[in-house]
Amino acid sequence: MATLLRSKLSNVATSVSNKSQAKMSGMFARMGFQAATDEEAVGFAHCDDLDMEHRQGLQMDILKSDGGEEGAEPPLEGDIHYQRDGTGPLPPSASKEAGVCSELSGQGKPKITAWEAGWNVTNAIQGMFVLGLPYAILHGGYLGLFLIIFAAVVCCYTGKILIACLYEENEDGEIVRVRDSYVDIANACCTPRFPTLGGRIVNVAQIIELVMTCILYVVVSGNLMYNSFPNLPVSQKSWSIIATAVLLPCAFLKNLKAVSKFSLLCTLAHFVINILVIAYCLSRARDWAWDKVKFYIDVKKFPISIGIIVFSYTSQIFLPSLEGNMQNPKEFHCMMNWTHIAACILKGLFALVAYLTWADETKEVITDNLPSTIRAVVNIFLVAKALLSYPLPFFAAVEVLERSLFQDGNRAFFPNCYGGDGRLKSWGLTLRCALVVFTLLMAIYVPHFALLMGLTGSLTGAGLCFLLPSLFHLKLLWRKLLWHHVFFDVAIFVIGGICSVSGFIHSLEGLIEAFRTNAED
């Protein structure tokens, strides 16, 4: 028995070691400004993995042998037993990680405040993809403005119920945190028949969203440079190739320490750009075309606008990690309220003011409407932000893929892409370069910012922000929910499903048509 137990613990320790670095991807994917350093994030990842493995695979009953009995075999080294309440001793291989967890929980480095958490959420939902919102108003009119408000309310609510799924009552009636991530919640909903199916679905959705985000950065870089220098004999595709050449060193990234240092500066620069655009629009307030804001919608293109609006609010994927790292998790609800209220007001004003200024001439990326005298300067700053933001989702996508396909213990589909010394093998580096090239090819053949953004928002954005949180909330906590919570969850699931399917179909049709047109050219 001792031998079998040691074997199981050894396998689990190996799995924890292989997967620990990949857990930081959920937070890095959507954070422009990191509230913690890379070393802290890795430390929190170890804590999350140890907790997850303890709950899923190591919750074993104590194998006792009466100490008073004669002939009782003393416990062997490594013959460690875990209790269901988590009070059992830790194995030697995990004792160091437990120290890290203890240090990060407050004895060493402090956790983030509500204001810092709010900054991270604001950075996630107020990124450069806000530049596509005026285009959504072009096809949705006042209904588009209503959807900006509606999406803020729904995303705020689903963020809260997603965090509620992390907690359960213990035997003493106390509310305790029993899960740590979106994947944990998904797996809990699919247990016991398919204990890993939910996590795989969430991981696939996360990979799609991250890769599509990378593609959007390449598309917007080529678009902005082409419209900034229209007199140069360089096409948008050529600008995309140049941007990808600059991004190719991302394949050699080992961590995001160097990149994350620029994130705060990029975010501040983006806010300045938004202010400049609004200031220019206000200077033309006398010419605003209020009569162009319509109450009817473009049936073919408005579903794409839904995806654009939803995609601009996506932040749920990293909220569990963010809430777990807050000094006072009780302030999470208040933080979600003011961040989404602020986002709703700023997005609504930005979209409306920009559309009133250019009306039917509004372009997919609103900065393309600026006069040529200031367009080049603004767009160059935006391109710099896009290029510096690209490594974040790229690195997160690479880690999820490497963990799932090459490092997931005995469940990996391919051999480990890292050598014994921890260095990336040549064929692993080739796969990373191939992912960069793939984002370039997609940007070249489908150089349509709004269509790609609408497709991503309809597919993964609506799924991660609307459908899955409401479904998980009903599945895990339905016995304790009040009737109005059940009503909200069902309504969000139905409305989100309709919007997701409609937006996905119309975005896909537009992409297929665009792909055929580019193929013919």
TrEMBL record:
The chain crosses the membrane at residues 143-167, 207-226, 262-282, 302-322, 334-356, 376-401, 429-446, 452-474, 486-505. Residues 111-507 form the Amino acid transporter transmembrane domain. Keywords: Cell projection, Cytoplasmic vesicle, Membrane, Neurotransmitter transport, Synapse, Transmembrane, Transmembrane helix, Transport. GO terms for biological process: gamma-aminobutyric acid import; neurotransmitter transport. Its main location: membrane. It catalyses: 4-aminobutanoate(out) + n H(+)(in) = 4-aminobutanoate(in) + n H(+)(out); beta-alanine(out) + n H(+)(in) = beta-alanine(in) + n H(+)(out); glycine(out) + n H(+)(in) = glycine(in) + n H(+)(out). It is found in: Cytoplasmic vesicle membrane; Presynapse. InterPro entries: AA_transpt_TM. It is a multi-pass membrane protein. Belongs to the amino acid/polyamine transporter 2 family. Antiporter that exchanges vesicular protons for cytosolic 4-aminobutanoate or to a lesser extend glycine, thus allowing their secretion from nerve terminals. The transport is equally dependent on the chemical and electrical components of the proton gradient. May also transport beta-alanine. Acidification of GABAergic synaptic vesicles is a prerequisite for 4-aminobutanoate uptake. This is Vesicular inhibitory amino acid transporter. It comes from Podilymbus podiceps. The lineage of its organism: Eukaryota, Metazoa, Chordata, Craniata, Vertebrata.
